[in-house]
Automatic annotation (TrEMBL):
One function term, GO molecular function aspect: ATPase binding
Lineage, opening ranks: Bacteria, Pseudomonadati, Pseudomonadota, Alphaproteobacteria, Sphingomonadales
Name of the protein in question: ATP-dependent Clp protease proteolytic subunit
Keywords: Cytoplasm, Hydrolase, Protease, Serine protease
GO CC terms: endopeptidase Clp complex
GO BP: protein quality control for misfolded or incompletely synthesized proteins
Pfam families, A to Z: CLP_protease
Length: 284
């Protein structure tokens, strides 16, 4: 294992492209990891229990700016980062990774539920990485939504390749695994159980079973937001812009955050059935 902190990850000089978590990863997270939380916390703990990057649907999201502010508040002390996230914007994840690796004291990462996609990059910033036996870590190549002709797509593929190679280097350095093996796992979009993550060097040890709990209220909220995120990306895959996708979802759901009496149906769960039907139709 690489006990010394890895080097900084590259970021685009001008970020014109966002890298997303695939809709099926959101599905997996909603099924297996939604609502998983830590039993204990503290004033030196940073929690990442939502998507990476600004989240339109929750008004939150884990960003490098927020993490940097939390680290300043913690000061020159060891920090624990608790993760249960389906990922999100890979480039925001890289920025968070870079912020964490600059912290002067030990960084302990605890994977609770799942650290997928961009969240798996963040996890590699830990001097010590712990994962639940029933938790997962998922790695894959950078995934984007793009439009254009064949020349545009060739250019995009060439533009993305260095970032995939950088992720291969990061995972290989942290795990001690052969870079070609790591690249193969990324090509296959690999989910690693807690035990597999430890065996392959992505984590140092397993978390105690009593370190985590499932919060029923948080689970319901996580799954609701998860359906919205997955539906948005699926609509974009079908050819709509993000604005068009969000407008369509809001017509089904009602205005985000609106009180039930202000927006008919906003306080009802009927929209979830309509959204799920639309999502299944698009996937079919």
């Amino acid at each position: 294992m690489a006990k010394a902190r890895p080097d900084a990850m590259p970021l685009p000089a001008q970020k014109k492209v966002s890298a997303f978590t695939k809709p099926d990863v959101f599905d997996q997270w909603g099924k297996d990891a939604a609502g998983v939380r830590a039993l204990a916390s503290g004033d030196n703990v940073i929690t990442m229990f939502e998507s990476i990057g600004e989240d339109f649907w929750s008004g939150g999201g884990v960003t490098a700016k927020k993490v940097a502010a939390q680290l300043r508040a913690i000061g020159d002390r060891p920090v624990t980062v608790q993760i249960n996230s389906p990922g999100g914007d890979m480039f925001e994840g890289i920025a968070i990774y870079n912020v964490l690796r600059e912290h002067p004291q030990e960084v302990t990462v605890q994977v609770m539920g799942m650290a997928a996609s961009a969240a798996s990059i963040i996890a590699m910033a830990g001097d010590k990485i712990e994962i639940g036996a029933a938790s997962f870590l998922m790695i894959h190549n950078c995934w984007v939504l793009a439009m254009g002709n064949r020349h545009d797509f060739r250019e995009m593929a060439d533009w993305l390749e260095p970032f995939d190679q950088a992720m291969v280097g990061l995972y290989a350095q942290r795990t001690g695994q052969d870079a070609k093996q790591v690249a193969g796992w990324m090509d296959k979009e690999t989910y690693l159980s807690g035990t597999q993550a430890v065996e392959r060097g992505f984590a140092d040890g397993l978390l105690a079973a009593d370190a985590m709990k499932v919060d029923a209220a948080a689970q319901a909220e996580d799954r609701t937001l998860n359906e919205l995120r997955a539906l948005e990306l699926t609509l974009v895959q079908a050819g709509q812009t993000r604005s068009q996708a969000r407008d369509r979802i809001n017509k089904i759901k009602g205005t985000p955050g609106a009180a039930p009496e202000a927006t008919p149906g906003a306080g009802s769960t009927d929209w979830q059935q309509s959204a799920a039907a639309l999502l299944n139709s698009l996937r079919a």
